[in-house]
Amino acid sequence: MASWAVSFGSVDPYHPAVQFLHQATEPVLKPVRDLLPPVSGFDFSPIIVLIVLQFLSNVLINS
After folding, report:
1. Which of 15, 29, 47, 55 has the most CB atoms at less than 10 Å from its CB?
2. Helical packing angle, 16-35 and 45-62, nearest 10°
3. Where does the pLDDT of residue 53 fall: very low under 50, low under 70, confident under 90, or very high at 90 and above?
4. Are 12 and 18 in contact (CB under 8 A)?
5. CB 2 within 8 A of CB 21
6. Alpha-carbon span 39 to 45, nearest angstrom
7. Please, which residues have CB within 8 angstroms of residue 46's CB and are 6 or more apart in sequence?
């Protein structure tokens, strides 16, 4: 969501908090983007990562 706000210009992309979020999330999102590039300008990688994290959380908690 933060990257969406940056892309529409409502958040300063050079703000330290935005830079931190980008540096923290990009290593996780980039491999997903390489497998599933944006479709019609919509990036599904954050959704895919959240689904995988939720699945792993459920598996680890229930095991």
Report:
1. 29
2. 80
3. very high
4. yes
5. yes
6. 11
7. 1, 3, 25, 29
Token pair in block for residue 60? 């680890």
pLDDT at 4 over 90: no
Taking the C-alpha atoms of residue 9 and residue 28, their distance in angstroms, rounded to an integer, is: 23
Residues whose CB is less than 8 angstroms from the CB of residue 43 and which lie 6 or more positions away in sequence, other chains included: 3, 33
Do residues 2 and 11 lie in contact, with contact meaning Cβ atoms separated by under 8 Å? yes
Confirm if 32 and 45 have CB atoms less than 8 A apart: yes
- For residues 9-31, give the mean pLDDT: 90
